[in-house]
Structure formats: structure tokens, C-alpha cells
Amino acid sequence: MSQLKAWRAAIIHCIADPKDVGVEHAYEYFEDGLLIVENDKISAIGHAKDLLATLPADTLIEHHPEGLITPGFIDTHIHYPQTDMIGSYGEQLLTWLNTYTFPEEGKFHDKAHARDVADRFLQELLRNGTTTALVFGTVHKVSVEAFFEASEVHNLRMICGKVMMDRNAPEYLTDTPETSYQESKELIEAWHNKGRLHYAITPRFAPTSSDEQLSLAGQLLNEYDDVYMHTHLSENKDECAWVQDLFPESKHYLDVYDEHKLLSERSVFAHGIHLCDSEYHRLHETGSAIAFCPTSNLFIGSGLFKLGKAEEHNIHVGMGTDVGGGTSFSMLQTLNEAYKVIQLQNENLSPIKSLYLATLGGAKALRLEEKIGNLMVGTEADFVILDKKATPLISSRLALSKSIEESLFVFMTLGDDRAIKATYSAGQCVHQR
To answer: In a 10 Å sphere around its CB, with 0-12 CB exposed, 13-18 middle and 19+ buried, how is residue 350 labelled?
Structure first.
């Protein structure tokens, strides 16, 4: 017989994109709410006064009067092998890859090392309230095996893939079109849809893959109905110029991927900063998504993501921390920087839209909105309890807050891992501060 569990606290979750329905209709908020979980899924959500009477007398209820429950955060672009090089100084993208990234990723031929980093990486995500992520491995097959094995321990809904890279990289980090195809295929067969895990075909970015490798990546995407495709797009102006030199026949950067049949409803492109109108149009037309990575874009000096432009073209957008180019595992800190990126373009990013991007928007970008991203009945019980007393500053600032929107904005501006009281995956506590 299944055991009901319930959590009582303030609860907020998004039910739609504010762009489509207006901010006031995009979320549900229960000042004194109750979240009921049965068999790892949400069985009820609402006002505590309405739901308490429906519970059996022996139901275990956790009460958090200083808590705010939100869906678990969703990170649509992050590199687990770059965990130990976060905060590396002084370079822009292409030099940064050669100076810091490639030497670090070279260590992941050793599965024991990969598993150690994967365990620490996942602990960081959970400490920061992130319950699902779209993750780069390295070129080594064992790097992905180690990541999936670590994710299985906590029953996490995670997506990962082996990097495909057969040129313009150190010899110790390159594969071949054939080996990248074969090893990716073996990983898909072993891990895709195993429990809550999914596979992403992962060419690093156009400059490090030959035409043949990109074609085989497109072939893989065609062979399996529901695998993902995860890569980088138009992050840096020098990168864009390099792509044009390497693929002179292509109309633009996105066209390189398009020609190799890599655009799909399960394709997620990180960054997408320097795009032309036809690229936005094609992303929308194919159902492809963009991961907005503000801490990375600012830290590596790449540019400002045009959220309004993506919205004009009805492109799905999720948030990405992009560790280690990004400087924080915290989705709250990522939203803090996103607000500033949008401010620099003379626009505002509302707290509700921010919550949407970090939860339901990310789920829609990953085509997982039926399973995660909000707290609707029937969804998987991935959620976070934020602590209104996390720090003296947060506590005193929230005491002056006049609305849930203002309270959310305080968490997104002043919050970090200390604001996460507990993280739950499929109804089980996977982190508690």
C-alpha cells in the first residue's frame, strides 16, 4: 500500500508562459499551501485549509512555515567535466577552450576520476535546487557511463551525452566519425529511457566536427525517435567567423547544423547570441530550443542574449548555468544575472517569467513538461523548499516584501545555495541543509 506524504508551506509554480497569458494568469500561488505526494508523483496541490481534511489521519505532514515550495530547477546547458575549472581567469571562448577546458576534459578517460567528479557535480546541483539538467560529458564513453551511474543513485531525471569531436582539438580528445557514431549508439541502447535517464547526441560545436561526423550525428537523431541533440550555437563573434571559414557554403552558423539534419523538437542549442532573423525563424520552424546562459555569456565576454527576439519568434528558451564557463551552479544566481542582461537591453525580466524560464520553460525546451517543470497533479514530485530565513539579509528584505512576485525577486537577487532548505527528486529528499 502506498504511503501518502505531504508538505505544508507557501507554494508557487508556473502553469503557462507569461508571454502567452499575462503574468497574473501564468502561475498559481498558495500562501498556506499543501503539496501531497503518492508513489513519487504529485496527487494534490492547493490551499492547506481545503486539503488537510481529505488526508488519512496517519499522513506524515512536513510543515515549513518559513518555506516557499517551487518546482525543482531545470538547467538546460551545463558541462559536468568542467566542475573543477569553474572560475578560470582571463580568456574569451576559443582561447579559454584551449587553455583550460581541453586539458581538464582530458582527465576523463579515467572512469574513477569521472565518477568522482560526477558525484560532486550532482551534489552541487542538488544543493542548489536543480533536479534536471542537460549535460555535456567528454569525448570518452566512460565519462557518460560514470555520469548516468551517479544519477541513478538518486533517481534523478537527467540527460547526458558523449561529446563528438574529430578535428580542431587536441589528439587526446578526438574521436572519429565512426567511433563517435558507434559509441553514441551503444550509450543510447544502454541508457536512454533507463529509469529517468535520457541520452543527448552531443557534437561539441560545428568547428570541432567534420561534415562526416555531423552527418552521422544527424543519422543517429533520425534513428531514435526521442533522443536529444545538444550543442553550441553562435556564442562568440570569433567563433561565428570561424564557422563561416570552415563551412563557406553554409548560409549562416545554424545552417551548418540544418544541412546535417540536426534541428528537431529535441534539439537544444546553447547560447544563440549572434543570430540573424532567418536563424530565429528556422529554430522556431523546427521546434528547436535555446539555452540562455547569462553568467557564462558575461564571464567569457560573449555578448547579451536577446530574449525578446527569441520570444518574438516563439522559440522555446530554458536557463543554463553553463558551468564551467558559467560561474555558479545556482539557478537563483543565474536568474540574477539574466535580469541584468535583459536590463542592459532596456527591458525588464519579471520574477514570474524568471521562475517560468527556470522551471516550466526549461521543461518545455526539453519536451518534458508532462513530467516535470511545475507541480500539477500527475507530474513527478521534483521540488525545492526555499528558506525565507536563509540569511539575515534575505530575512530582513522579505519582511518588507508586499507580494509573492517581490519575494521571488528577493530570492533571485540575494539567494544562492544557502536559500535551498531541501531538494526532492521523485518525492525523496536528496539534499537537506
So the answer is: middle
Phi and psi, residue 416, nearest 5°: -155, -155
Residue 423: partners with Cβ closer than 8 Å, 6 or more residues away: 72, 126, 127, 129, 130, 131, 384, 385, 429, 430, 431, 432
Burial class (CB in 10 A: 0-12, 13-18, 19+), 393: exposed
Residues in the chain: 433
Other residues' Cβ atoms within 10 Å of the Cβ of residue 87: 10
Q: What is the pLDDT of residues 360-371, one digit of tens each?
A: 999 999 999 999
Express each pLDDT in 190-233 by its tens digit: 999 999 999 999 999 999 999 999 999 999 999 998 999 999 99
pTM: 0.97
Peptide bond into 324 cis (omega under 30): yes
Res 1 pLDDT > 60: no
Residue of 126, 136, 355 whose CA lies nearest to 228? 136
